[in-house]
Amino acid sequence: MKIISSGKGIHTPEFHKKKKREKQIKIVYTILFVIVFIAIPIYLLRTNKFLITNVEVKGNSVTQIEEIQKIVMEKISGNYLWFFPRSNDVLYPKSAIHNNLLTEIPRLSAVGISLLNAHTLSISVSEREPFALYCTEVSNLNNPSGCFFLDKTGYIFSEAPAISGGVYFIYTTEPVFETPLRQQFLNPEMFKNLEPFIKDLGQIGLYPKVFINKGDEFNLVFSNGAMIMWKATADLDSVQSDLESFLTDANFTKEKNALQRIIYIDLRFGNKVFYKFHD
Q1: What is the pLDDT of residue 252?
Q2: How much is the pTM?
Q3: Gap between the Cα atoms of 152 and 168, Å rounded
Q4: Which of these, 40, 98, 134, 244, is most buried using a 10 Å CB contact count?
Q5: Which residues in the chain show pLDDT less than 50?
Q6: Long-range Cβ pairs for the range 239-242 (8 Å, 24+)
Q7: Residue 126: closest CA among 58, 54, 182, 56
Q8: How far is CA 17 from CA 4, 12, 38, in A?
Q9: Taking the mean position of all CA atoms in its chain, how far away is CA 119?
Q10: CA triplet 148, 150, 152: central angle to 5 degrees?
Q11: Residue 194 and residue 117: Cα distance in Å, rounded?
């Protein structure tokens, strides 16, 4: 009989074969354990009992339900790492759904997402309401074109149908936005302050039709083509005060049909007011 020594003891070949088999069996059991450990969660996550199959939408009045459902279903289709379904009621990508809905449907101002049950995802939305128009062509104030709706924050969210001038106040820019949709017309705080300013002008006999944002200056245009100009950085209260002072000044009031004949009132140069009349 041949004797093999490992330096620590003397064992027969049969002993080593036995140890080798035990090691192989241990490896097989370990692999089986790992497979089972991974397979069971995958099976449970993929079973129909825990998969979202329905999308319920509420809060929409203009946006089509199918449009919202399509975006949601696209986001929950497929798998993570080839095995874990995105439609699982634990794994579904809530943040991605929320962000995609707001990005792809600019009319939506808010989105809420919750599970009604293991199979049904509830999408609650709020929609932006038209406040005014952003138009790319305003040469004809009674028939502007290339118009989009913007909301009360100045966010341009939807194409507008052909609407005659006067239904909505008109905003535009120079140069115009190449792609107006999803653009912010002005800083929301600045835009918010414009509405009362424009309305208050009616108290002094001024009824503008179009507001123009030129970047470093703002213009208001009236139905007869007359224009008021001021620096974008100017305080609106000061602009209104300067206008009131100008319109009540004797040099202006002595002019016959002054408001109808005015071409422009330029308030861009501090306390100085420049103006011009039609002959």
Answers
A1: 85
A2: 0.78
A3: 12
A4: 134
A5: 1, 3, 44
A6: 239/197, 239/267, 240/197, 240/200, 240/201, 242/267, 242/271, 242/273
A7: 58
A8: 12, 9, 32
A9: 29
A10: 165
A11: 46
**Are the C-beta atoms of residues 94 and 113 closer than 8 Å to each other?**
yes
Q: Is 187 helix (H, G, I), strand (E, B) or coil?
A: coil
For residue 276, give the H/E element and its range: strand 272-277
Report residue 42 CA to chain centroid gap: 36
pLDDT, the chain, mean: 85
Residue 192: which of 120, 132, 234 has the closest Cα?
132
Q: In angstroms, what CA-CA distances link 210 with 235, 240, 273?
A: 19, 17, 21
Phi/psi of residue 67, each to 5°?
-65, -45
Angle between helices 188-200 and 236-247 (to 10 degrees): 20
Exposed e or buried b per residue across 71-81, where buried means at least 16 C-beta atoms within 10 angstroms of its C-beta: bbbebbeeeee
Return the sign of the alpha-carbon dihedral for residues 140, 141, 142, 144.
positive
Closest by alpha carbon to 264, among 235, 222, 212, 202?
Answer: 222
Q: Which two tokens stand for residue 165?
A: 């001038």
pLDDT recorded at residue 16: 65
Q: What is the pLDDT of residues 198-232, one digit of tens each?
A: 999 888 888 999 999 999 999 999 988 899 999 99
Pairwise CA distance, residues 96 & 114, whole Å: 14
The Cα 252–Cα 130 span in angstroms is 38
With DSSP H G I counted as helix, E B as strand and the rest as coil, what are the percentages for the chain, rounded to 5?
Answer: 35, 30, 35
**Which pLDDT belongs to residue 54?**
92
Query: What's the confidence (pLDDT) of residue 204?
Result: 82
Give the number of other Cβ atoms within 10 Å of residue 37's Cβ: 9
